[in-house]
Description:
globular
Amino acid sequence: MIHRERFHELVEKYLDNTCTKSEELELEEYYNTYGGQLFPPNTEQRTKRQLYQRIAARIKTSKEITIRNRRKAVYRIAATISILAILGISSMELFPRKEAQLITITSNLGEKKQVVLPDSSLVTLNSGSSITYPEFFAGETRQVNMTGEAFFEVSHNPDQPFWVTTPILKTKVLGTSFNIRAYTDNPDIKISLATGSIQVSEENNVLATLKPNEQLLFDKGTGNHLVTKQNTIKDISWLDNIIVLDDHSLEETLRIVERWFNVKLHMLTEDVTNKTISGKFINPTLEETIESLELLTGAQITSENQVEPQKP
Length: 312
C-alpha cells in the first residue's frame, strides 16, 4: 500500500506536470486499486467541488491561454479530483482552510485578455476592462465583479449560481454564455445573451430574464431599461477582432476606437456630432479606421497615443 506522504508527493507532481512515466503508473495503479471507495452520496458533490476549486486555484488563477490548453488543464484537474475523491481525502485534510484572496485582472487599452476562473469558467476581457474574483469559490454562490466589457462562458453548476456584479446591475446565471458592456464612461449598460438564460437585477429589483439573442439596455442616467431582440453576434464581434457599428453615435464610435487602439482622437470639425455611424471593420488598423470615419462624417480626425492607460 502506498504511504499517504508518497501519495501527496505524487499528486503535487501530477498537478505540476512533472511526473515521470513510472510515477504516473504508480499513481494510476493506486487509482485502480482503490477505485471502488467512493464518498457517501450526500457529501460527494460538495467535497468534489471544494477540491476542484482549490486545486484549480493552485494550478492557474489567471493566464492567457488557448482553448486547447484550457481543455487540457480542465481534464488534468478533473482526473486528479477523481483520484482524491475516490481515496476519500477531504479538502480540509489536503488544503488547510483559508480566506479566499481576491484577484483582479485588467485588460489595458488596445489589448484583450482571457481569464480562466477557479471553476473553469472562461472570461474574455475587451480593451480597457477588468474583473475581480476570489482565488476559489466558497459558499453557495460564485461571485465576480467587472467593469468595461467581457464575454462570459460559465461552467454549469446549478448548486452554485454564478453572479456578475457591475457598478449598478447584477446578472445571475447557472451556466451560459453572454456579453456585458459596462464601461464607466458609457451612458448605458448593455447585456446580451448568446446561450442559456440569465436574470438581470438592479439591487433587489429583477429587471428581466433574458433568452438567447435578447439584449437589455439600461440607461444609467434615467434608470430606464429596454429589452430587445437582436442577433447577439453583433455584440460579440469584438471576440473575432471585428468592430461592428450599428447606428452608433459619433461620440460612442470615437470611444470604441480609442479603447481599441489605445489612442486619443481629436475631431477638428465640430458640426457633425449628431451623425450616426454604421459599418464593419474586420481586423482594422488605426489608419484605415480613421480614414473610413473621415469619409463617413466629412470631419478631419487626428490621433495621439494615450499618455497612460485609462481605468475601465
